[in-house]
Amino acid sequence: METPCALGWFLLCLLSVSECIDPKVIGIEGQNVTLPCKYNTIKQGVSAICWGRGAIPNSGCNKEIISSDGTKVTWRSSVRYHLFGVLKTGDVSLTILNVTVKDSGRYGCRVHVYGLWNDEKYHVNLKIEKAPVPTTSQANVIITQTMDNHTHCHVTTNSTEYSDTSTPLYN
Predict the structure, then answer these.
(1) Which residues pair with 161 in a beta bridge?
(2) What is the distance, to the nearest Å, from the Cα of residue 129 to the centroid of all Cα atoms in its chain?
(3) Which Gene Ontology terms describe the biological processes this protein takes part in (predicted)?
(4) Helix, coil or strand: residue 8
(5) Mean pLDDT across the stretch 56-64?
(6) Which among 69, 97, 102 is positioned nearest to 84, based on CA atoms?
(7) CATH 2.60.40.10 boundaries in the chain
(8) CA-based diameter of the chain, in Å?
(9) Which of 46, 102, 136, 150 holds its CA 20 to 30 A away from the CA of 129?
(10) Rounded to two decimals, what is the model's pTM?
């Protein structure tokens, strides 16, 4: 009978030192990105939430950027932050408009659950990469018409090409 007990203690110790890896979202400068956060409204009902920058503290959100009462956004620090999901179903994913490299970093989503120390906490790491630099090439347009009514046309185009020197998004 000592084996099941020892196995139980081993699993408990293993679980207590294991660490969940925060999901990572990669975006391109100038585009919009969405950081996922969802909770079960059937289990706990509609809940107030907040999003902040950095690690989630014991209460509230660190450097809070947006909050909701569970049905609508009640506060935001910038017009760039939105909750476009259906809040009443628990989709409180954060959308950041027109991201910049400065938006990179760790974000925390806190779902307020009734009772002490019951809140659900989710972290997401955001990495914003520089947009590819456009290069423009131009050619000349020359249209000539000869006396024998033959038209000679040299077509010129202005084209924009993007050269991507960044690393691939997925390894």
Answers:
(1) 135
(2) 12
(3) apoptotic cell clearance; cytoskeletal rearrangement involved in phagocytosis, engulfment
(4) helix
(5) 93
(6) 97
(7) 20-129
(8) 107
(9) 136
(10) 0.69
